[in-house]
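Friendly challenge for the regulars: who can give me the structure tokens for this chain first? No prize, just bragging rights.
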Amino acid sequence: MIGRLIKAMKRPSEEAGDPRAIDRRADWSAFLWFAIFGIAGQIIAVWSYATELDRAGGGSPVTKVMLWEFSSIFVILALFPLVRWIVSQGTPGQHDWKRLVLFHVPGVIVYSGLHIFFFVILRKIGHALFWGEPYIFTDNPLRELTYEFRKDVMTYALIVVFIVLARQFEQMRADLATARRDAAATRQLSVKSGGRTLYVTIEDILTANSSGNYVELKTSVRTVTIRTTLSALSDQVAAAGGEAVRVHRSWLVNPKAMVELKPTGSGDAVAVMKNGDEVPVSRRFRDRLKAPATP
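First reply, four minutes later:
Bragging rights claimed.
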């Protein structure tokens, strides 16, 4: 089952921007990260139990606890493709709540039932092979099924979060790559601001100022606020054949739009732009910027 997931998610796409290919790459990343955290969590759980066992001087052998813990995570990883499919049918943030309820409520019930059924089977096999004894899941089915279902709901929700976040991140990467290709072909940046896609001509760019997770991009036509980083914006401008020079940890400037470079002492300076704006230039970045030639 996991092998089919890996084969599907690594299958090449005819188009780099194919949403299905983007989701496959994202889901493969989500699976790997979830597996790493899940297995690490089980190792820590077994290790903690061994410590408590040593303190108490008795209890179930550590090898049995290893079987119990790792049979659970193995089944959870094997069920990852099921959750992946359910997320594709009802994606939080994309589909309405009715569709989410329609797929995820029965989905988590099926997921929990399969998880419990198969880890019990694996534990029964392990107990018979290694210790020659039966594995008794519980003498109180309602209590244990409720307990396991509560844990399964949390694990299911965590897998959904991993998949959704991975898909969003991968889509952002794909959008950035597309924007760079478009910029190179048209000498325009395509930027998203307030739900709109705006096109900025490279030659119109004056400055860019970073503030947290946003960048205020000022041009000779307008000022827009976009969710990006100065490094990503600089790369996008370079891909379009333009130039955006870092002059401060929070500032980029278009050197062709600069009319004066004024020293301020201690090695710092101020770049005066053609619209009259003054941008701080730190001494560590000053060597990247040349004073404009005198006409």
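Helices lie at 2-9, 19-56, 62-78, 80-89, 97-130, 141-186, 230-239, 283-286. Strands lie at 188-193, 196-201, 205-211, 214-219, 223-227, 245-248, 251-253, 258-265, 268-273, 278-281. Your move, everyone else.
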